[in-house]
Structures are given as C-alpha cells and as structure tokens.
Amino acid sequence: MDRRRFLGAAAVAASGAVALPGIAEVRRGIDAALSGSDAGDLAYLEGAFERHRGGYRGRSPGEVLAEMRGDLDLLRDVLTRPHAAGVRADLARTAAGITGLVAIIQHDRSDQRDAHGWFATAEGAARESGDREMLAWALARHAMVPLNYGAPKAAADLATRARGEAGSKPSAAAALAAAVHARAAASLGDHDSALRSVADARTIAKHLDRTQAADTWFGYPPQKHHVHLSQAFTLLGRTREAYAEQEAALALTRTPSVMTRALLEMDAATCLNVDGDPSAAAGKAAAVWQHLPHAYRNGLVRTRAEALHHALPEAARPHLTEALAS
Question: Quick one: angle between helices 258-274 and 239-251, nearest 10?
Fold first, then answer.
C-alpha cells in the first residue's frame, strides 16, 4: 500500500465515517456477557419475592393476587431466557418462592386444585435451585392444602417429606412441617404422633433465629406457631391447651389479621362444642361469620365453620346454618 492510500484509510477510520457492520451489537453482547443483561429484572424479582412474602397486611387474598400478576408475567418471561448456571439456580429459587406465595393465596381462597398446581411448580423450581430449605418450605406449605380441605393422610405424608428435606438444623420450614404434621395426625386420631410433633414444633421454634421467626409467609413467627397448636389441640379435644394457645396468639399482637382472628375464634367455638355447650359454640361461630368481610367468606374460614357445623348436634345447627347461608 502506498503512502497516500494508507493516509486515506487512516483518515476514514479516524472520522468514523465508515463503521464495521454489527459493531454496536458486538459491544452490547460483550457488555451483556460481562454484567448480565437480565441483572435488573433478576434484582426486581428477588425484591418482589421479599415484598410479597410479607403477607396480606390488611388486604384481601384477591387484592394481593392481583398485585402479583405483573410480577408473574415478568417471571415467566425471564425464565425463558438463557442464563449462566449460577444465575439460573438463583432465579429458580426466586421462582419457587414467588409461585409458592401464589399457591398460599389460592389455598386461602379455597381454590384447592390451583393451589396444588402452584405448589407443584414451586417444588419443581426449588429442586432445580438445589435449595433444600426452600423445597422443605414448599412441601410444608403444600401440606396445608390437604390438611385444611379434608385429606389429613396426604397432609401427613407431605409434612414428613418436608421434615426430611429440612434436616436437623432448626428452620422455619422444619417447625412448620412439625406443626402441620401434628394437626394431620390429630385429624387422623393418632394422638401419640400428634403430641410428639407438637413437642418437636415447640423445640424447633425455641431455636429459630430472628430471620427464621420473621412474621412473613416464609417465616415461622410465634403467633403462627400458637395458631397451629391451637388447631392441633382443638382437634385432639384438649380444650384447656387449645384455649391457652388461642390466648397466646391473640396476645402477641393488637391487630391480628382478619383471617387469623377468625380461625382462632372458630377454634374457640369448636372447643365450646367439645366441652358440651353446642348452643354457645353455634352462637359464637355465627357471630364470627356475620362480622367477617365478604372477601374472606369463600376460603379457609368457611371450611373451618362448616366442619364445626357438621360436628354440632342437629338441635344446635339452625343458628349457624342461617349465618352460613347469608
């Protein structure tokens, strides 16, 4: 190349008049490989899991589910993109958490089939992530679906699997699994197994750190502990212990959630029936139902109220029958 041609080529390169084809795309690709083009979406989804797992906070299940819809769309989109192995594992863990929260809401809304489906999704994501604690949490929460909707044997099996995944280290998942197993065993009439699981839940709960005992759907706070044991002792017919657990749960906060208070009061009504006062039991349950916001009347509280209605003698049913029909 002679000197003039060399200088001309140099001038063109210096002026930028002619760019190499695709050079901008190459730079973006290098940048993405260095920093991760999905970093913003991944960080947002991790924050969404932390935000949503705080519970209802005075909102109805339907309201919370509606708020999560956009995050679910984003999660679906991000999961279809390629990721490095470590990033994919973290994303799978976040997906397990978010889909597990949806399953909890569907459980509370009495959509059993959809709750089972979302929990299956959460369990699959947890397995992909390799996080056994997350898997134990998903299994323990899943166990509450058959537990609360008439299949205690299935609940006991899921809770047992959750205990196995949780291992020996004290965790919210292990405590929840023990408490759910206690309730399932009580429903099955296996009092000895139920009391052993109650003891296990109490022991684990005493050793939880602040994070594990946080008042979220992912934690096992003291109030939740007492709510579970209230139901276990109610099912066992041990009303003195059940009343004590109800009082302990209500004493932990001035403003328990609508659902928490309603479930505890339904337990108290059931205890009245066990103690031989079915009229008072029906009256208390009817009063709880009549003061319940309509958004909470088609889920778990109705299931608990209907179980009491079935257990009442025929003569004591009309008052509660009328309330449930309203």
Answer: 160
